[in-house]
């Protein structure tokens, strides 16, 4: 296939984003018109922003209309609030705050979608050329976990987490400016951890890959630069968003995490300077030892300052809350605790990534072996994290799309020169399956015999009726009727309470 010019490549990416945005708006037009946010967390995010714009302190993210008079500590970052608040503030004088809020709830996710699309394309372009980048951009729409998180009315932090992950991945492949790339990796991981502490294992994964380069590579200096950038940026972000508060929370960026990262970075930077003149095996052994010391320093800081955070980030949950809320939230459970149909769909995406990796190693591309190894380790590590926390599947699935894209381009190119119609169609069907593995996985899952998942028609109808009534009850129009009552404290379901906070002047007992 003829190589794309830079201008045509850019125009195609812009066209793909515009078409995807239109399709997402059309698919969500009912939710947009009815002011239905993506889920309760999106509703709480909007309420948090309203309170901030109404005068609540930047450093205080407590929701005071929940669990009054103490309020509910949200542990959510103000960073995600910034772009949404900017749109609301800019548009309110012209259209009023309700319309400005709706515009922000539509525009910010679509902007995030565009950034994710560009990053996917840029990474895949490095792997297999510009046509591969175009294929990766198109395939984003078929990655269901991504489109769900990037659709209009989804203003919570998940989309920005994906941006941080892909920005660090793109920097991982930058050979021309290794120091700048290392700093980008550190800053991206720090932003991710400030947004959500779920970024911690991925930060360890990226630093682990750079650690292998530290042992012997032309980019050995990346680990000290990345670790220093990570430690300094997390410290800066913490004090910029939390002020001088010194409370350690296991489920959000806290002083203990900053201290652990500072300890590890100090050891790595000192060791890099001390071993820079060593050669061969002596340098490798010295840096392996230094890496072990850095890890020990980070763990020691954690155990000394917040031993309760050494294991599960939600270890301090009340047992009753864990049993009836946390353990019943599917996105936070391991993949193997999901329905077989969901497992098959995820595994289909992982399989596409594995096929793309095999092709990447066998194709003899210009990509150095170090970078191919980095992508292999990143994909494998992301898949392991996703297996333990289902909502993290979005990361290996996006990697799978950009890894498979170069092979898809080759398959289409081979199909154009195929001698027979059968071979031509087989190659194209295989290419489409790699672009949309989730769709293929859905059909495979439906074909699998499973008595446990055979629904009872009466139960299915009853559940559908209940869901329809619940949606009607939680609509803006229905909840707004409660404003006829004087301000009160209401007890409602955990997922219904955010709607009460969004559409009424009432207080609630608790939310999820």
What topology does this entry show?
Blueprint: H1 6-27, H2 29-33, H3 40-53, E1 62-63, E2 72-73, H4 81-95, H5 97-128, H6 130-139, H7 144-150, H8 158-172, H9 178-195, H10 200-215, H11 222-242, H12 255-275, H13 280-305, H14 319-324, H15 340-362, H16 369-388, H17 394-416, H18 421-435, H19 437-447, H20 457-473, H21 476-480, E3 489-490, H22 497-503, E4 507-508
Parallel strand pairs: 3-4
Antiparallel strand pairs: 1-2
Helix pairs in contact: 1-5, 1-6, 3-4, 3-22, 4-5, 5-6, 5-8, 5-17, 6-17, 8-9, 9-10, 9-11, 10-11, 10-16, 11-12, 12-13, 15-16, 15-17, 15-19, 16-17, 17-18
Keywords:
4 strands; two-stranded antiparallel ribbon; globular; mainly alpha; 512 residues; 22 helices
What would your notes on this structure say?
This protein is an all-alpha fold and 512 residues long. The protein has helices spanning 6-27, 29-33, 40-53, 81-95, 97-128, 130-139, 144-150, 158-172, 178-195, 200-215, 222-242, 255-275, 280-305, 319-324, 340-362, 369-388, 394-416, 421-435, 437-447, 457-473, 476-480, 497-503, and strands at residues 62-63, 72-73, 489-490, 507-508. The strands form two sheets. The chain has a two-stranded antiparallel ribbon. Helix 22 (497-503) links the parallel strand 3 and strand 4 (507-508). 42% of the residues are buried. The mean pLDDT is 90.
């Amino acid at each position: 296939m003829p190589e794309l010019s830079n201008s045509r490549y850019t125009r195609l990416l812009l066209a793909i984003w515009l078409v995807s945005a239109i399709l997402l708006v059309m698919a969500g037009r009912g939710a947009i018109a009815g002011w239905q946010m993506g889920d309760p967390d999106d509703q709480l995010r909007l309420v948090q922003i309203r309170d901030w714009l109404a005068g609540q302190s930047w450093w205080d993210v407590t929701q005071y209309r929940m669990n009054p008079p103490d309020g509910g500590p949200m542990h959510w970052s103000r960073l995600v609030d910034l772009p949404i608040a900017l749109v609301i503030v800019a548009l309110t004088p012209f259209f009023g705050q309700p319309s400005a809020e709706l515009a922000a709830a539509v525009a910010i996710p679509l902007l995030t979608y565009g950034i994710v699309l560009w990053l996917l394309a840029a990474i895949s372009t490095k792997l297999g050329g510009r046509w591969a980048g175009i294929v990766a951009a198109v395939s984003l729409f078929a990655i269901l976990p991504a489109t769900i998180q990037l659709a209009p009315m989804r203003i919570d932090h998940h989309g920005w987490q994906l941006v941080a992950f892909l920005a660090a991945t793109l920097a991982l492949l930058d050979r021309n400016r290794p120091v700048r790339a290392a700093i980008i990796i550190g800053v991206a991981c720090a932003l991710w951890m400030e947004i959500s502490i779920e970024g911690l294992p991925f930060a360890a994964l990226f630093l682990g890959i750079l650690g292998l380069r530290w042992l012997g590579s032309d980019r050995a200096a990346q680990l000290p630069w990345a670790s220093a950038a990570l430690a300094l940026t997390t410290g800066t972000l913490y004090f910029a968003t939390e002020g001088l508060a010194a409370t350690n929370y296991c489920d959000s960026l806290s002083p203990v995490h900053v201290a652990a990262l500072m300890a590890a970075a100090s050891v790595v930077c000192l060791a890099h300077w001390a071993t820079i003149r060593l050669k061969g095996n002596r340098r490798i052994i010295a840096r392996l030892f230094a890496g072990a010391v850095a890890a020990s320093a980070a763990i020691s800081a954690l155990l000394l300052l917040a031993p309760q955070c050494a294991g599960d980030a939600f270890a301090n949950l009340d047992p009753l809350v864990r049993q009836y809320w946390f353990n019943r939230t599917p996105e936070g459970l391991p993949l193997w605790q999901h329905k077989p149909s969901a497992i098959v769909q995820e595994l289909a995406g992982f399989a596409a990534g594995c096929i793309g990796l095999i092709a990447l190693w066998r194709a003899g591309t210009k990509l150095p072996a170090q970078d191919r190894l980095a992508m292999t380790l990143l994909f494998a590590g992301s898949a392991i994290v996703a297996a333990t926390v289902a909502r993290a599947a979005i990361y290996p699935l996006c990697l799978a799309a950009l890894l498979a894209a170069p092979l898809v381009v080759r398959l289409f190119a081979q199909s154009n020169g195929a001698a027979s119609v059968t071979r031509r169609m087989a190659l194209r069907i295989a290419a489409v399956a790699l672009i949309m593995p989730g769709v293929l996985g859905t059909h495979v899952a439906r074909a699998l015999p499973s008595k446990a998942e055979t629904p009872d028609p009466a139960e299915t109808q009853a559940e559908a009726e209940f869901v329809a009534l619940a949606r009607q009850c939680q609509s803006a129009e229905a909840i707004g009727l409660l404003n006829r009552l004087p301000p009160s404290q209401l007890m409602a379901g955990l997922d219904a309470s955010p709607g009460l906070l969004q559409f009424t002047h009432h207080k609630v007992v608790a939310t999820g």
